[in-house]
Amino acid sequence: MTHSSAPSPWSERFVIREGVRLSARDWGGSGTDVLLLHGLAGHAGEWDATARLLRDSGHRVVALDQRGHGASERHPGDVTRAAYVADTLAVIEELGLERPLLVGQSLGGSTALLTAAAHPELLRALVLVEAGPGGGNPGVQEQIGGWLAAWPVPFPSLEVAAAYLGGGKQPVGDGWAGGLEERADGLWPRFDPGVMVRSLDEISTRAFWDEWAAITCPTLAVLGQGEQGGIIGGAEYAEMVRLQPGLRGASLPATGHDVHLEQPTTLHRLIVGLLGDLAPSEP
């Protein structure tokens, strides 16, 4: 007896920019366009729960594997912030996204922030998930590099990988483990740790407050809690509000850095609420 696997709820789309192949999960749907950007060492599949909810509530949804990640080019020569932003613009244009809502988590939030700052006319709104303009942490590359180097790869199974990567939170572990690739000897990351570390070159040396102040589209910040692993402290958030008094914010109790994995239903509700509030004023 044979078993046929269920068809994928999304289709893979490719965009090639300056020789770098980018892979995206296109969930289809109609209504407001939404583009989702994952964090460092992540992958588009982390957004599956959120993407499904958004599509089912009337939105066209695309989740991008950013350069160096997932099914996109693993060893891009250019991993500057500008390259990540240019990729985002190319995906918006090539996939025909019209004034999308741009949602980014962590490093993807940095990409989204810089895209919104440089191209204010392009986006309907911006959602930052555990991301902000703060930076200038010279130890972050050593910290991240050490963490990635410590992964006991290859993992023998998804269960073992999820237990290691989840830090006691099963949705987080499942999300991270879902980004691994199967080889003959076990499960390995679909990224090069050196590329990940280099992608933090600018973030480790400077902040992006001028870019933050330049954003003109409606913006929502969704934060986890510091004791749970959230990275946006009270002082940084206060400065974000000072420079952008119209900022909407939500802090989710008992939730850490991977808000989209821990609380996809709540995140969906917040996104839909933002879009619903914007609709009456739009032509």
How much of the residues is beta strand, in percent?
15-25%
Shape: globular
N to C succession of SSEs: EEEHEHEHEHHHEEHHEHEHH
Largest sheet: 8 strands, mixed
N-C termini distance = 56 Å
Low-confidence stretches: none
Average pLDDT, to the nearest integer?
96
Helix content: 25-40%
Total beta-strand segments: 10
Alpha-carbon Rg, integer: 18 Å
Structural class: alpha/beta
Number of helices: 11
Strand arrangement within the widest β-sheet reads: 1-2-4-3-5-6-9-10
Description:
With 283 residues, this protein is α/β, with parallel strands linked by helices. It has helices spanning 48-56, 81-94, 107-118, 140-149, 158-165, 170-177, 193-198, 209-214, 234-243, 259-262, 264-278; strands at 11-17, 20-28, 32-37, 59-65, 101-105, 125-129, 181-183, 186-188, 219-223, 248-251. The protein has an eight-stranded mixed β-sheet with strand order 1-2-4-3-5-6-9-10, with helices on both faces. A two-stranded antiparallel ribbon has the order 7-8. A hairpin with a 2-residue loop joins strand 7 (181-183) and strand 8 (186-188). Helix 1 (48-56) packs across helix 11 and helix 2 (81-94) packs across helix 3 (107-118). The longest helix has 15 residues, at 264-278. The radius of gyration is 18 Å and the shape is globular.
Pick out its properties.
8-stranded mixed sheet, 36% helix, alpha/beta, two-stranded antiparallel sheet, globular
Secondary-structure topology with pairs:
Blueprint: E1 11-17, E2 20-28, E3 32-37, H1 48-56, E4 59-65, H2 81-94, E5 101-105, H3 107-118, E6 125-129, H4 140-149, H5 158-165, H6 170-177, E7 181-183, E8 186-188, H7 193-198, H8 209-214, E9 219-223, H9 234-243, E10 248-251, H10 259-262, H11 264-278
